[in-house]
Amino acid sequence: MGESWRWAAGSFMAGLTPATRTALLALGTRRSFPRGRQLLREGERTDHVEVLLHGIVKVSVIADGIDVLLSIRSAGDVIGEMASLTGRSRTATVTTCGEVVASSITHVNFNRFLGRHPDAALRMAAVMSERLEWANARRTDFAAYPAEVRLGRVLASLAGSCGRATSGGTLIDVPLSQRELATMVGIAQPTMQKAIRELRERRLISTGYRQITVVDLPGLAALGPD
Domain HTH crp-type: where (predicted)? Predict the structure, then answer.
């Protein structure tokens, strides 16, 4: 049954063998969630990870009273793994963007699984390393580049992880408000509006209500200071 799911490229599950995936999913309890449901809450102490089987979630934290969007996770990703490995409270809140199906696995069973499957443990380490590299790249961008470059690189990343091919380009298939996107990029909303207009005028993106389509992905990914 596990092989009927479609895993996002680069996700934890996509990097496992079919046998290892089946062994992991056998440990979990499958649940469905509607849009807007919080799967994990920042600061809570709970004892499970969620393996996303279908759908997309937003990962956010509260900073100085502001809800800051950190990342997007999709089918094949594991959420809650940090608390599982450290035994500490949740470091972020995870909220569904639409209908989500996930497999809930206790920390004990997940950690035991990693111990018994070295290939999965190595894949988990690689995923966590990739996430750290992404976060470090965003910090560098925030310090070194103007808003339109920072926005362009985030959009290029989102197009790669959760984009859907359309006749007009790669649709970022996540309903993000400008406020949410602004917090993810680390700029004020008026600056975000200006940056979106700049990218649109350069024919790198097109926009609709809560919708962004990347028209020129190579051009967007290659953005740098003039």
Answer: 145-218
